[in-house]
Amino acid sequence: MVALVTGAYKGLGLALCYQLAMNGYKVVLTARTQENADEATQLLVLKGANEIFPKELDVTNESQLTEMAKWAKQTFGKLDLIINNAGINPKDYPDKSKMAKAFYLNELDPQELFQVIHINSIAPLLVTKHFRSLLNLAINQL
Fold it and tell me: Is the pLDDT score of 33 beyond 90?
């Protein structure tokens, strides 16, 4: 079984990768940087998780999604599970003035808001668009 988890270098995504790996999945752990993906993988390996595949992935970048889907097909032949965990919350921005531009109506900056919408709402659809055929391969193997 193979799972792809986006936004998996910390928090819920990291915990999901751990649980999946401990339950027999090969896990593609993605993060915006390869460094974050590698660090998260090292942590999971230290906790006894195996078969973790760290990959850099910006879920808003369709060329990266295309390349990742090709890699996954060549490496695994299919995907059994996709967890679209990547997301941002403006309230967590260290720069509160930037947060206000995406969160408060009086200070709203359309570009900041679009970034939040793009990552939280559009990107999961893009991920599904690029990996759906790999899910279909898994279904056809049942």
Answer: yes
- Cite the DSSP H helix spans in 23-141: 34-46, 62-76, 96-103, 110-117, 123-140
Question: Which residues are 82's β-sheet partners?
Answer: 4
**53's tokens:** 């595949």
pLDDT at position 92: 80
- The predicted model scores a pTM of 0.90
For the record, the structure tokens of 113 come out as 């808001």
Distance between first and last Cα of the chain:
12
Q: Distance of CA 64 to CAs 35, 87, 88, 89, 130, Å?
A: 16, 17, 19, 23, 10
In contact, 90 and 118? CB cutoff 8 Å: no
Q: What is the mean pLDDT of residues 14-42?
A: 97
Q: Is residue 21 exposed (0-12), middle (13-18) or buried (19+ Cβ within 10 Å)?
A: buried
